[in-house]
Design a protein that fits this description.
With 369 residues, the protein is α+β, with helices and mostly antiparallel strands. The protein folds into two domains: 87 residues; 242 residues, Bira Bifunctional Protein, Domain 2 (BirA Bifunctional Protein, domain 2, 2-Layer Sandwich), CATH 3.30.930. It is built from eleven helices and eleven strands. The strands form two sheets. Strands 1, 5, 6, 7, 8, 9, 10 and 11 form an eight-stranded mixed beta sheet that branches. Strand 8 and strand 9 form a beta hairpin. Helix 1 runs parallel beside helix 4 and helix 2 packs antiparallel against helix 4. The longest helix is centred in the N-terminal third of the chain and has 40 residues.
């Protein structure tokens, strides 16, 4: 056996016996490094005759390649072994009992969402949903908003370009819905009156301050029948707000307003008492705007495929986040979305605190303060 074969066998034996990646790297350096055994043999090529140099060079390069392959294979073997040993040690015992302290909290928006659904479900309303990304027909056109309406301006609305077009065209682009009113149109297209639905969900507008955020939550209601009147609207909203704020009496008033999708339109205010440190809902000397409402515009009924000469209805819309701020005394809307664990521990609710009209709506005792 030649000297080079003896060296090769010794190196491969060391590689086979090694059980540590650091030691394996030391073997690599000792064999293939600048002063390694194989490297030193390569340096002797210059002193050999041409024919002997060619033959010896082929042999030493072949041995070098075999050693490199052995080192790579051994390294992979050791890494897999180390990973398996680590996984065996890092076992989680899922049978361990849970912590006695309740760690998670229900967000006030989720809680108020449940409260709203509980009240309107008791009143016979169904829950309707729609896409967050809307076409302009359902978000604007069908709601009696002409192309020059201020709400359609780019500084107020998030537009999404059509993938098939390389150039942005605001008239053809999709929008991230600015309200859930598009759900009302989609419901009218699919369902024949009578209709009684609420449409809660996320909405998006280009705005950000203490009472506005780019993404917020809204709930809208729609009732369509042959004899629906403004009196029905007032009774419905009064019963809802009285139940939501959990007060026996609630002063309300309606102020004439304008919305392109309702006629007549109104803003609804509720009575309250404002002091420097407190806002109390109910009897008081002050008023607080809470929602917009009105009778569905005939053009909107036509766009939804309903004959306005036979049917009429009312609609309303309110911000879920704003209702949460009013009911639970949260001063800044932006804190709703900052993911601060201290905030959620203060304003959040326990996970088992469900909302219902029979067992209690808000269960204020569950408020973590």
């Amino acid at each position: 056996m030649s000297e080079i074969e003896v060296i090769k066998n010794e190196i491969e034996q060391h590689i086979a016996d090694v059980q540590d990646t650091k030691v394996l790297d030391d073997i690599r350096v000792a064999a293939l490094g600048k002063k390694g055994q194989i490297t030193e043999l390569l340096k002797t090529l210059g002193t050999m005759p041409l024919e002997e140099r060619i033959e010896f060079g082929k042999k030493i390069n072949a041995i070098k390649a075999e050693i490199e392959a052995s080192i790579v294979a051994k390294k992979q073997e050791l890494e897999v072994k180390m990973l398996n040993e680590r996984l065996k040690k890092e076992v989680i015992d899922v049978t361990l009992p849970c912590r006695p302290e309740t760690q998670g909290r229900i967000h006030p928006v989720s809680k108020v969402y449940e409260e709203i659904v509980a009240i309107f479900a008791e009143m016979g309303f169904e829950i309707a949903e729609g896409p967050d990304i809307e076409d302009q027909f359902h978000n604007f056109n069908a709601l009696n908003m002409p192309p020059n309406h201020p709400a359609r301006q780019m500084q107020d609305t998030f537009y999404i370009n059509d993938d098939t077009s390389h150039d942005f065209d605001m008239d053809c682009a999709y929008v991230v819905r600015t309200h859930t009113s598009g759900v009302q149109i989609r419901t009218m297209e699919k369902k024949h009156p009578p209709i009684r639905i609420i449409a809660p969900g996320r909405t998006y507008r280009s705005d950000y301050d203490a009472t506005h955020t780019p993404m917020f939550h809204q709930v809208e209601g729609l009732v369509i029948d042959k004899k629906t009147t403004m009196a029905d609207l007032r009774g419905c909203l009064y019963d809802f707000l009285k139940s939501f704020f959990e007060v026996d009496t609630l002063p309300v008033r309606y102020r004439p307003s304008y919305f392109p999708f309702t006629e007549p339109s109104a803003e609804m205010d509720i009575g309250c008492l404002k002091t420097k440190d407190e806002l109390k809902i109910g009897a008081g000397t002050d008023w607080l705007e809470v929602l917009g409402c009105g009778m569905v515009h005939p053009n909107v009924l036509k766009a939804g495929g309903i004959d306005p000469n036979e049917y009429q209805g009312f609609a309303f819309g309110m911000g879920i986040d704003r209702l949460a701020m009013l009911k639970y005394g949260i001063p800044d809307l932006r804190t709703f979305f900052e993911s601060d664990i201290r905030w959620i521990k203060n304003y959040g609710f326990t996970p088992l605190d469900f909302s219902s009209m029979t067992s209690g709506l808000s269960n204020n005792g569950g408020l973590a303060r």
